[in-house]
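pasting input
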Amino acid sequence: MEHEKGKAVSVLRSTARRSVLKAGAALAGSAALGLPGMVMAQGDKIRIGHLTPETGFLGVLGKYAVMGVQLARDEINASGGVMGRQLDVISEDSVNPQVASTKAQRMIERDKVAVLMGEINSASALTISQVAERYHTLFMCTGARSDVLRGKDCNRYTFYVDIPVTVMVNAVGLALVRDNLVKGKKIYSLTADYLFGHDLSKAAKKFFAANGGIQIGDELVATDVTDFSPYLMKIRQAQPDLVATNLAGNQVTNFVKQYAEFGLPYPVVGFNLNTADAWAAGEGNLSGIWPTVWHQDLKTPGSEAFVANFTKRYGKPPENHAWVEYVTLKMLAQAMNATKSTDTEKLIAYFESGAKFDILKAREGYFRSWDHQLMQEAYPFTVKPKGQSKNKYDFLQFGEAVPASNQPLEMMAPTKAESACKM
Amino acid sequence: MEIVFLLEQVVNGLVLGGYYLLLALGLSLIFSVGGVVNLAHGAFYALGAYVSLEVIQRLGFGASIFITPVLVGLLGILFERFLLRRFYSADPILSLLVTFALAMVVEQVIRMIWGAAPLASNMPQIFKGQLMAGHFMFSRYRLFILLVVMIVMSGIWLLLHKTAFGRVVRAGVQRPDMVAVLGIRLQPYMTAIVVLGVATAALGGMLFGPIAEVQPAMGNEIMTVAFVVVVIGGLGSFWGVVLAALLVGVVRGVTIYFAPAAGEASMYVLMFLVLMFRPRGLLGERIERFE
């Protein structure tokens, strides 16, 4: 309890210290240049407010997001910037939905950012998108996957880059149906107890019901659970044919490790597993079928160059959150260059126009105008047979892109009739 | 059959409680003897996990069980000698701030050395898998943890109750002034207690690494549970902490059996009830020390 209080103090203190530092740096900078404010304003940098969780159960993923956005920023700036202006990305820890909202507001009001981007936590993404709507500022929501976020809670100032829950469920679901693991089978679920988990559970239940699966249990798990043993015992008691996890962040890692520890025999699938969490579980602890939005083994010239540059700079391969942040900043740069503007309305019009974006995949992506979701390929993955991995990042077996190249990209996304999004 | 599954949760809770004990006992000892709430306890737990990864890589899992606590325990000497010692008689808020700051520093140092991404720690192959005893399912690895905890706890109990060292420590907990009057300096004893506490925390970190993931903030998560255990058990009582750790494990397991969503809240409700009806904790000797 002292502990929690301490945390709050630390947040306050670090923000205060950071702003003092920033003010100091700004002072030192203007003094050194000795230029009048007018001149400085012309060559002014384009400021991007970047919020993502750098601590807590999604913190590890957020760190990758920061690395990804920094790499994109440096590449863009090295090639002359956007409209001759350099990009200045202000990355901050979004901590939780309340802090995220406060910081987003401060970035708009005080730091005068042109655009907001980032986030992994769906609940925080929701509060930021509400700020974006209130201040009429563009928000590129990168890593948050909730369906509700882009359904009922959508707004015209927010665009969604990552694949939504429904797409993840469909990507894995198609493989499950193929392997005959759904029809007439008893399915037991564990669900992360927050917005995203509930969303995932809803989409998964809908899929199982539509394909003849029998849901025999679905238990909520708090996000700070590290010990899953009591839940594993409940699973054994239920004797399911399939264990379906709707967990998030390091919950997934802890669950799969302990599942292997207890050696339960039922097949596991999950609708959400980031590659960083899979790496953390380690070879020998992971099994089952999972979905991903992007992976480092993708053989396209763009992806290979990105993986090479990222690995050279950070000494490890990029994770899917590094990818999503990287392509988002590149898409923003493309939109600003094309519209020759940082004006929110012009950028929205460009993104809504169906413009194509190179997102380092075989097929280009585009935003659907009516719900602002990026239409793109996704990939299922499993685990390589023992002894086939080259290093600790190399034990995942990535499958072919879904939808297949002859099918429309919109096939797996919710249809207009299914979506609650009204802008 | 239903009752078997409930019993299984109780037994599993006892096993888990044993693991909580590794952290809570050190925390309780340091507080009882020095009057310092060591918020950096979780940091030593995390350090234990990271140091063990290095030791396991070079010398193997078996050696790490002995070497990791010793290495982190040595850090404990520095911690006590140069930091903690200055705050025994100071305003408790100062030691809170200092140990909290240390926890953040250690977390950042871990990030700088080992990186922010979680690392995979694996248990030896022979511990993997389940063991069925009648209708009860156990994880082999957790039974091994339980064995280690039982050995360590017996050792600490013998140390505190059957040696001259332990007599001075226990006297120091109850009447530090009387111990001083008898001409005994408590400081070396305090160093030993901190080393002991920090080493058991490190052992906890090492043992839990293969079950969860090894990441810089892992100490924060476990600290809350350790605090709850100490508060429920009551300060200055060896058996109080043991009882509370087991109770927290069992209550959590049983709650998850009936209402999984309430699992994590159960230990706080338990703490609330204990504080309402017995503010000094289950077996606590007094409540006035920390004010």
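fyi Chain A touches chain B through 48 residues (CB under 8 Å).
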